[in-house]
Specification:
104 residues; alpha/beta; elongated; Barwin-like endoglucanases; 6-stranded mixed β-barrel; 36% strand; 6 strands; 2 helices; 28% helix
Length: 104
Protein backbone atom coordinates (compact mmCIF):
# COMPACT_ATOMS: atom_id res chain seq x y z
CA UNK A 1 0.00 0.00 0.00
CA UNK A 2 2.76 2.42 0.92
CA UNK A 3 4.66 1.57 -2.29
CA UNK A 4 1.59 2.44 -4.36
CA UNK A 5 1.18 5.76 -2.54
CA UNK A 6 4.86 6.58 -3.07
CA UNK A 7 4.56 5.69 -6.75
CA UNK A 8 1.48 7.91 -7.16
CA UNK A 9 3.19 10.85 -5.46
CA UNK A 10 6.27 10.42 -7.68
CA UNK A 11 4.12 10.20 -10.81
CA UNK A 12 2.09 13.28 -9.83
CA UNK A 13 5.30 15.26 -9.18
CA UNK A 14 6.77 14.21 -12.51
CA UNK A 15 3.63 15.21 -14.41
CA UNK A 16 3.44 18.57 -12.62
CA UNK A 17 7.03 19.47 -13.50
CA UNK A 18 6.79 18.08 -17.02
CA UNK A 19 3.71 20.15 -17.87
CA UNK A 20 5.04 23.24 -16.08
CA UNK A 21 8.26 23.15 -18.09
CA UNK A 22 6.38 22.46 -21.31
CA UNK A 23 4.60 25.79 -21.07
CA UNK A 24 7.76 27.90 -20.74
CA UNK A 25 8.96 29.28 -24.07
CA UNK A 26 11.78 31.50 -25.26
CA UNK A 27 11.74 33.15 -28.66
CA UNK A 28 10.97 36.27 -30.61
CA UNK A 29 8.12 38.65 -29.91
CA UNK A 30 6.73 41.48 -31.98
CA UNK A 31 3.84 43.87 -31.56
CA UNK A 32 0.86 44.74 -33.69
CA UNK A 33 -1.64 47.56 -33.77
CA UNK A 34 -4.55 45.65 -35.29
CA UNK A 35 -5.20 43.65 -32.11
CA UNK A 36 -8.61 43.23 -30.60
CA UNK A 37 -8.87 45.87 -27.91
CA UNK A 38 -8.56 44.76 -24.31
CA UNK A 39 -11.04 45.93 -21.72
CA UNK A 40 -10.06 49.03 -19.79
CA UNK A 41 -6.45 49.24 -20.98
CA UNK A 42 -5.79 45.54 -20.39
CA UNK A 43 -2.53 44.24 -21.86
CA UNK A 44 -3.29 41.65 -24.55
CA UNK A 45 -1.40 39.37 -26.90
CA UNK A 46 -1.75 36.75 -29.62
CA UNK A 47 -0.46 33.19 -29.25
CA UNK A 48 -0.77 30.22 -31.60
CA UNK A 49 -1.81 27.53 -29.14
CA UNK A 50 -2.64 28.90 -25.70
CA UNK A 51 -6.38 29.09 -24.92
CA UNK A 52 -8.14 32.44 -25.14
CA UNK A 53 -8.20 34.13 -21.74
CA UNK A 54 -4.91 32.59 -20.59
CA UNK A 55 -2.69 35.09 -18.78
CA UNK A 56 0.95 34.90 -19.90
CA UNK A 57 3.98 36.35 -18.15
CA UNK A 58 6.27 37.89 -20.77
CA UNK A 59 9.80 38.93 -19.75
CA UNK A 60 12.28 41.10 -21.64
CA UNK A 61 15.38 42.99 -20.50
CA UNK A 62 14.59 42.76 -16.80
CA UNK A 63 10.94 43.74 -17.22
CA UNK A 64 7.95 41.44 -16.83
CA UNK A 65 4.32 42.01 -17.82
CA UNK A 66 1.20 39.89 -17.67
CA UNK A 67 -0.98 39.87 -20.76
CA UNK A 68 -4.14 38.01 -21.72
CA UNK A 69 -4.36 35.91 -24.90
CA UNK A 70 -7.23 37.28 -27.01
CA UNK A 71 -6.09 36.51 -30.57
CA UNK A 72 -4.24 33.92 -32.68
CA UNK A 73 -0.76 34.50 -34.08
CA UNK A 74 1.99 35.28 -34.77
CA UNK A 75 2.15 33.75 -38.21
CA UNK A 76 5.81 34.55 -38.90
CA UNK A 77 8.35 31.75 -38.40
CA UNK A 78 10.41 32.08 -35.24
CA UNK A 79 8.01 34.34 -33.36
CA UNK A 80 6.20 32.96 -30.34
CA UNK A 81 3.96 35.87 -29.30
CA UNK A 82 2.54 39.11 -30.73
CA UNK A 83 1.88 41.84 -28.19
CA UNK A 84 -0.62 44.68 -28.38
CA UNK A 85 0.88 48.17 -28.55
CA UNK A 86 0.09 48.91 -24.85
CA UNK A 87 1.75 45.61 -23.85
CA UNK A 88 4.81 46.35 -26.00
CA UNK A 89 5.10 49.81 -24.43
CA UNK A 90 4.87 48.34 -20.93
CA UNK A 91 7.61 45.85 -21.82
CA UNK A 92 9.85 48.58 -23.28
CA UNK A 93 10.26 47.05 -26.74
CA UNK A 94 8.66 49.69 -28.97
CA UNK A 95 11.91 51.03 -30.44
CA UNK A 96 13.34 47.55 -31.13
CA UNK A 97 10.22 46.11 -32.78
CA UNK A 98 11.23 42.45 -32.48
CA UNK A 99 12.93 41.17 -29.31
CA UNK A 100 13.80 37.86 -27.65
CA UNK A 101 11.43 37.17 -24.74
CA UNK A 102 10.60 34.49 -22.24
CA UNK A 103 6.94 33.46 -21.96
CA UNK A 104 5.55 31.53 -18.98
Amino acid sequence: MQAQTTLLVALASFLFFAFSAAHAETGLASYYSYAKAGKGGELTCAHRTRPFGTVLRVSYSGRMIQCRVNDRGPFIRGRIVDLSVPAARALGMMSAGVVRVSVD
